[in-house]
């Protein structure tokens, strides 16, 4: 019986819900020492001196930037406009953002290491900081980029000028989105151990990309890649923040080599995370859109500036947000005439990097805003103007103006189903009833989006890095007892991948779900896997697992056919039993076949080698777009600006939902994260480059009280990949900005141009 499509108990749950999770924070090793990093209090300053004498005299092991001045991270891209810059492991000439590391202390506990930091004296010569990416730079962050622009690109299709000249209505809008932090449950963490006799490094790291981390650490430390082992145990959330190789990671490994045989541990605290882990979504969109009288979208012109912070993060570069914004700004709407100039601008703020939905929560907000403006100007409803322009199944494959190819087209179906689940007509009637009364006003907001998932090597919408993130590998081994071990290149950050990979392999081989064990996150156990990002693991990692499982099944059937003197085509495997097609009774078990394969080689048919194992790679070449629509009804109190979500609905096309409970959990969690960004979360810097919202008292995050009950619906149109799946990990984040801003505008007749939507900001707009 197939386990795919059902929701068996997750394999991770036994250890996670009983407190036996294996997080980096839990790791304890003999002789372990702890690391604390000294961080710059200045947003921009030259370092004129570092005095660690007092700390060393007190018995602390201290490392400063000069110890590792020969090592730097350098994110590369082949785009012509990209400006490459170095990111030091520990700053030694100048600091470029408040929170950058300037020294590190090793001690017997984190408490003592923090004491050691207080004994280090650093002399700074302050420089003028630049905080806002669309202000004039006060001083270049890097000499290589005097204007602070690290990357600029223009996406161009059709004739924008002619289309605007023919338009019945042209709308213009400037929108600014707020700066976010990922804030996973477990902050960044690492333990590094150097074995001097073998010249081998073991690095336990809470990372989403263990193989990429191994690759770069080996290069920076001048080691054979096989001498570096990266282990990502249970990862307490990542959301993209842990898809970056950080200077602290490299520093930890370099320090471990300097103290051989001593494990060095660093676990980031929450204040460090808000200060120094990557940020995202600090964007400005200057939009212009032209419409025909019937609402047809004729042209879009956009100027997009993304604050990429102080450094170009490895490996994703400063282009990850601006290029994704420009490549997918038009979303699920048909558009011929398009021009978008995007740029990544360096500032003296924490570096910007990948974060769940990469740029698209902002770009969807911008696109949906101009659609709503066009509808108002033309006297159309928000539903009508979207339906007029959505890509439809008959348009597939649809080449977007950025040349990406959309393979979905089921956007109107998602929107219709979402409106029905909302009770759209009922809320419109209640909205009319409340007009002119003192009751809170009701508004309805919409967002339609296309989420590009499972990017193959031909579908990269981001920077042209020196490698393509298109494939993953999987090894499936049937053991002598008939049970199966899976070594997958996927990496879990809480998505239940041990479960879904087990389902895929169980179905592919024909054994019980309970007889499959999945091992992930260890670079010494599995072949190359690029890791967790871009909603890729179900499509690509799942595709590799499916192909490998089928290869093992073929081997089992070939061996069984020899033992039974039957044709392999006449045999089938179900629940670990092998039978002849058409017969009710099984002829033999998979375990019997496996025993012969390993232990009774004298029974092996001629031409069949011992063992039952296979390894396969999978690359979807392009990718799979997931269609989605979100709608919500809210009420707003005019006197306070307070917003209450009455009902929130999301409908997505996940293709084939392999584990429906996990799929719903991913969608629910991503919407909650999106609501947090729309209404609460905001990293604010003052003019001197100091972070003003450096604790969770200032950086507000939604709790269960602020997250509404949500209705999740599905349409199911299989994608063109081995499992027919589409990714769902990020789509939920794309809608809330647009949905909630549009709902406020619908309720109050105002425009929301700046996020987050706080009671104060709504009240101010009303005044």
Automatic annotation (TrEMBL):
Keywords: Molybdenum. It comes from the Bacteria. Residues 18-128 form the Aldehyde oxidase/xanthine dehydrogenase a/b hammerhead domain. The keyword tRNA processing does not apply. Pfam families: Ald_Xan_dh_C, MoCoBD_1, MoCoBD_2. The keyword Disulfide bond does not apply. InterPro entries: Ald_Oxase/Xan_DH_a/b, Ald_Oxase/xanthine_DH-like, AldOxase/xan_DH_MoCoBD1, AldOxase/xan_DH_MoCoBD2. This is Xanthine dehydrogenase family protein.
